[in-house]
Amino acid sequence: MPELLLKQYTDCQRNTINRLYAQYFLCLTLSMLNTKALRKEQTEKAQLVIRHDVLSASFRPEFIAGADVGFEENGTITRAAIAVLHYPSLELVEYKIAREGTVLPYIPGLLSFREYPALLAAWSQLTLRPDLVMVDGQGIAHPRRFGIASHFGLLVDVPTIGVAKSRLCGEHAPVGEEVGSCQPLIDHGEQIGLVWRSKKRCNPLYISIGHKVSIDSAMGWVEHCMKGYKLPEPTRWADGIASNRAFFRQTMQKSL
Fold first, then answer.
1. How do the domains of the chain map onto residue ranges?
2. Are 71 and 79 contacting, i.e. CB atoms less than 8 angstroms apart?
3. Which residue, of 123, 252, 255, 256, has the fewest CB within 10 Å?
4. Other C-beta atoms within 10 Å of 216: how many?
5. What DSSP assignment string belongs to 23-67?
């Protein structure tokens, strides 16, 4: 809404009006979208996802990255963070944050189209090139087998793994309470991931193929990147950077 008209309202009222306008324009965008075409694109691109290891069993990466996406300004700004860790020390060596105007409203099953522009912007800023990326989200554990980990992996042509905190589709047997307990995630008779207890008294993680990695290797790399927290270090750092969490702020202060 024009600033001249907003001046007659209180700050609280102006914030409410701006939020409603943002939601209105996102809904308007949704009404103009051909969501059927986007779903068709997902189905077609899912066929291009490589579900086996392209790296040899003896390969040891130098850098492993984590990627996380969030939203600001009532969803009108997409924020992506990529954290690059040295392997096997898992020490943070580089990170980038990108903020882009949100190009798509929230549509279940189509989140990758909403998230990947900011991820690509953050990726383009990196001076180091990761050998493997763990993405906070689904890979092939998606109704059309094309979540953000697969979408991003295909775009940047790098092995990726989906590390999600919740289930999007599929069913699984109860996961034991012990750390390391695991169950296959099955959807329409196909295994699309693993449900893995990474820490006691925490909900399990949903691990899936992103691109250019097998499910066994995906699980193995996640295990190699654990340091006692619920999340593997790459996505834990990406989440911490994106959300400016206390451990990230403390790390930055120590480096000054």
1. 4-43, 48-253
2. yes
3. 256
4. 11
5. HHHHHHHHHH--HHHHHHHHHHHHTT---S--S-TT---SEEEEE
Do residues 166 and 101 lie in contact, with contact meaning Cβ atoms separated by under 8 Å? no
Cα atoms found within 13 Å of the Cα of residue 3, Cβ hemisphere only? 0
* HEC sequence for 105-149: CCCCCCHHHHHHHHHHHHHHHCCCCCCEEEECCCCCCCCCCCCHH
234 upstream amide cis, omega within 30 of 0? no
Give the per-residue SS3 of 190-231. EEEEEEECCCCCCCCEEEEEEECCCHHHHHHHHHHCCCCCCC
What is the pTM for the complete model shown?
Answer: 0.86
CATH number of 48-253: 3.30.2170.10
Q: Phi/psi zone of residue 49: left (φ > 0), alpha (ψ -120 to 50 degrees), beta?
A: beta
Annotated binding site for Mg(2+): 68, 136
> Are the beta carbons of 151 and 45 closer than 8 angstroms?
yes
Q: Which residues are annotated as a binding site?
A: 68, 136
Q: Find residue 196's DSSP bridge partners.
A: 182, 205
Full pLDDT tens readout for the chain, 256 residues: 445 444 555 666 556 555 655 555 555 555 456 888 999 999 999 999 999 999 888 899 999 999 999 999 888 999 999 999 999 999 999 999 999 999 888 889 999 999 999 999 999 999 999 999 999 999 999 999 999 999 999 999 999 999 999 999 999 999 999 999 999 999 999 999 999 999 999 999 999 999 999 999 999 999 999 999 999 999 999 999 987 787 777 777 666 4
**Residues forming beta bridges with residue 100, ordered by sequence position:** 78
- Residue 37: exposed, middle, or buried by beta-carbon count in 10 A (0-12, 13-18, 19+)? exposed
